[in-house]
Amino acid sequence: MSSKTSKIIYSVSAGVTVILCASLLSWAGLNSSDEVTYLSGELEVSPAARTEYLIGEEFNPTGINFIVDGKTLNPDEYTITNDFSNAGSKMVTYTFTEGNKIYNAYYPVEVYMVRHIDVRNDEIYQNSSGEWDTSGMLVWAELSGAATEFTKPVEYPNIDDTVIVLPDYYYSISVTPGKHETFYQGKISLLAGPLSYSFNFTSDPNALVDNEDRILDFINADGGKETLTLYVTKSSNNFNANITEPIEVEGIYVFNDGNGNETRFNFAYAYNPAYYQSTFKSSQFNQGLVDMQGYTNSEGVYDGDAYQVKVNGCTFYALGSAWHLPILNWR
């Protein structure tokens, strides 16, 4: 569509009059004075008018004026009909009726189907009012054809690419709480069609995990109100439970002083299957946190499979049955 012209005409052939045949008139109970005449109207289209849509979208008439006999009509004087229920080249019909005269004009658009969606950035968190803020999310969509009017990802700028940044008005997001208080399951549903995308996230944007099994809550050995939670974010073998080579595991400790103040510490761990050796080594970050294998409870009983963490004057511990799953994916 050229931006150098302010007027583009889409219409039926000018001056064409269609007169219903005598048999049809007889069937409809019409006489000669009720003959319907079809005439052509004109559409004045500005560069702001859309020519591309996704299945299920509503037509947007912005930038389009309907002109009949040189007069620009008001929107309440005519009707617009279209069918965007499937993909393909479509015609939007503008219709104005005056007595037994019907004026039509046609506007061509292209409708695309969303074949696939991909959440490139699933940052989502609750704001101070408790509502979910999804402004940081970025969703891509692969279309049934190459569109030019939708925003393109910087990674796919070519006009022939079928990937676009999916407009946020075209999908909705639902959130379901998980078993852990900081873990949630999100689901993106499209405006039209059965296609959806599910993802997991935590309410802490600095401790992202994609699986609730990666979260470990510690026991406060002192019985205080302080809490410690570990979010295991990375394993060198992608959390494969069948460990045949030494692995390195990373994550984030979140310490809460019981008054709502949180402090984060880096977590590091190594496992060598040749010696069945676990090494907790977060102290290497020199952040004031120390973790180590083994824990002796208040009754003096030592548990070599448990591990303990000392931070901010508090001692926390986790039994082997608790930490094996989030760190090693052993069930």
Low-pLDDT stretches: 1-31
Number of helical elements: 2
The topology string of helices and strands comes to: HEEEEEEEEEEEEEEEEEEEEEEEEEH
Distance between the termini: 61 Å
Describe this protein with a few key phrases:
5-stranded antiparallel beta sheet, 5-stranded mixed beta sheet
Describe the structure.
With 331 residues, this protein is mainly beta. It has helices at 22-28, 320-328; strands at 37-40, 42-45, 52-54, 64-68, 71-72, 79-81, 88-98, 101-112, 114-121, 125-126, 132-133, 138-143, 163-165, 171-177, 183-190, 196-202, 215-217, 219-220, 227-235, 247-256, 262-272, 277-280, 289-296, 302-311, 314-318. The strands form 7 sheets. Strands 1, 3, 6, 7 and 8 form a 5-stranded mixed β-sheet that branches. A 5-stranded antiparallel β-sheet has the order 17-19-20-21-22, with helices on one face. The longest helix is centred in the last third of the chain and has 9 residues, at 320-328. It is elongated and about 105 Å long. The relative contact order is 0.09. Residues 1-31 have low confidence and may be disordered.
Compact summary:
The chain has helices spanning about 20-30, 320-330; strands at about 35-40, 40-45, 50-55, 65-70, 70, 80, 90-100, 100-110, 115-120, 125, 130-135, 140-145, 165, 170-175, 185-190, 195-200, 215, 220, 225-235, 245-255, 260-270, 275-280, 290-295, 300-310, 315-320. By secondary structure, the protein is mainly β. The model is unreliable at about 1-30 (pLDDT under 50).
